[in-house]
Amino acid sequence: MSELPPPLRIGIVGGGIGGLVAALGILRAQKAGANVRVDIYETGPTFSELGAGLSFGSNAIRCFNLMGLREEFEKAAGPEGSDGNLWYELEMGEKDMPESGKCFGRVVGPERIEAVHRADFLDLLVDLLPDGISHFDHRCTSYTPHEGGVTIQFTARDGSESSAECDILLGADGIKSSIRRTLLARTGLDPAEGEATYQKWTVWRGMIDAKEFARACPGVGTKTTYFGRGRHIVTFPVRKGELINFVGYVWDEDEKELEGRSGPWSEILPIEKALEDFKGFSDKCLSIIKDAFFISNIITNAYVTDSSIEARGGRIQKALEVYRDARHARGLDIVSSSMRTGRILDLSGLRGEGTDTEKITKELQSSLDKVWRYDTAGELVRALERLRA
Q1: In Å, what is the CA distance from 24 to each residue of 134, 191, 216, 305?
Q2: Which of 61, 158, 222, 313 shows a CA-CA span of 20 to 30 A to 261?
């Protein structure tokens, strides 16, 4: 009887939601018989998430179902109810705009759309990880590919250095990714081209106790987008409806908020600054902002990657090329679509909709339908057919 070859070693740098979902998909393939091993390398002393609410569209939720993560998602999402398919109700937030204070439209998904509190969902994913695959205090500084695989270099908080070997390296290390920086340098590109840049939006975030929200804004829906010129506010429920996530966006065309700075990326500012940014919005919107301050931020890629492992047949490079061809253009399209959606919410009139509420609703529904109705399962089938060819 011939011995099994060594397992395919997969290293994941980054222990956020994206990294853990990828790891769990790989473990699912392992359980089904794939000869693989996965290790997760996290910079911090434990797994943790920054930010608060995170909304998932119908396409992402379908992927959770296909990856066997529906139960964990259900524990964190909600509340599920009659508005499960609702993305947002649409309302003019500025007082001097036509139809101000009235719901002028609704954007709905083909299936359920829900949100989670990032930390809640991450904790549920962590509970599914087996012992021995998570490595903390491993800040990735670079990687070196070679004939036998990939060497990942790390630096610990005390300055000590270490390394690890893998056959496939997955970078899930966020917006300041060292994996991306190293990749660009190795391909002869300027690493600075891959750095995050200011996209002219500043964002206010907060969480509101649902009871306080109901008291301050009786009868107001919790899944709502409030429109304004160069500004908009979004609210949605998390933690089974116990909290309302608040996000306020301000378009900074002249980059005045930067004031020549390169950081920090986030900071605590007084409520007066937020109220000034949303001056002219309705009293209801200003009440939401005040409450938010008183009480107080990848999945489809993981599905395609993890499922492809089951048919690898030792053809690592071909599998990665198939993945790149399947997902790269889609990822770029999502980025441009997200920017376009944000500008519509700011009443920028990029496509001539201006303040025409009917055109705004139709444009948002059409743009988001392209995201939500995307056939990820079909994309996987096509990718596997190409891999087996």
Answers
A1: 12, 30, 41, 11
A2: 158
